[in-house]
Structure formats: structure tokens, C-alpha cells
Amino acid sequence: MKPNALIFDLDDTLIDTRRRHYHIVTDFLKLNGITNSLSFNEYVNIRRENSFTNLQLLMHFYSAERIEDRFKLFWKENIENPKYLSLDELIVDLDLLKNISIENDLYILSLRSNHFNALNQVKSFPFYKLFKKILFLDYQNERNPKTNELLILRQLYHQIRFIGDSESDKEAAINSSVNFVLVLTGIYKITNTTFFFDVNNFLKTNLNHE
Which residues on adjacent β-strands are paired with residue 179? Predict the structure, then answer.
């Protein structure tokens, strides 16, 4: 029989990227001489409750001329800079991940523009060697690049589940006929019948069933 696999999104599934996003936003405001009054917790709550992107949050609270173009450039230059990547924090429990890897092949499937910096970041976390393969894909405007990778992996395994935090993760799973598991550690509100508070809640539940 073919083995089973668990496919994990990286950002806000295995690691928490919210402080990276927050500091990019606040550094942008400071650089442009705009007074910022949002604390980290306020930033997170406002984004989640309104399903705001960072740009939408800025446009909602700070009306500055041509802020959109300036922020897009600042974001592109900094979002995967090692200085900001170092702000990401571990979510997943290493022992739980080790235990689940005994019966399942583990993969990371993530969208990143700078694959070199992304791999270096993953290597800095203790879970790195538990994964059979780490797949970084480029962003695409008109299609979800994770769909094709999930379709390929589906042919290799008896059962695969894709664990992610976003609507695009859910879409990729549905389009590839793969079971999707939502974790609620992401910044956006999305609806799904199967969800867990975080990745550790999912791992504990599945270890109890094995």
C-alpha cells in the first residue's frame, strides 16, 4: 500500500509571520513620517476582523498621497529580507511533528519569491530535517501554483492532507481533490467544516487516532 503524507503550508501554519508583517508596516509608516498608533495586538485584530491585507489596512487608516505605490515597493523589497524573516516565530511543537512523521511523509508547500532566503529560514528552525521535501513556489497572478504540486503528490500517496491557514490553501486543496485542514492561526477569517485552533491541535488529534 502507498504511504500517507501530510503537506504543510509554512507561513502562519508552522511559523507565525504576524510580527514580520507588523514591523514592515510600522517601519514603512515611520520612514514616511506617518504617526502610527496601532499596537501589535490591535493590528492583528483589525486585520483578522476585517480580512484586511496590509495595504487595505494602510489605506483605511492612513490617507497619504500615493501611499499605495510606495508601500507596494517597500513590501516587495523587505517582506523576504532576512532582517524581517528573523522576526518569525515557531508555532509547531517539534515532538508532535516527530511523532507524526513516523507514519507519514512530511512536506512543506509554500509561496515565496526568494527561494534562497526561504530555504535558509527553514533551515534555521529545528523541524527542518523532519521533512521529506520542501517546495517553494513563485506567486502567480491568475492561478494557484499549489494546485499542480498537490495533484502530483496525490498520485504518490494513499492519502494526503494539506494543512494551511488561508483561502488560497483551501482553494488549492479543493481543486486538486485533496483533503484540506484549516488552522486558525492565519490573519484572515475563512470558513471550513474541518478546522483546528493551531497545527499542534491537529497533530495531537491525529496522533490519538493512530
Answer: 161
Indicate the pTM of the whole model. Answer: 0.93
Q: Which CATH number fits domain 4-16+89-209: 3.50.50.60, 3.40.50.1000, 3.80.30.20, 3.30.310.50?
A: 3.40.50.1000
**Per-residue pLDDT tens digits for 43-99:** 999 999 999 999 999 988 887 667 888 999 999 999 999 999 999 999 999 999 999
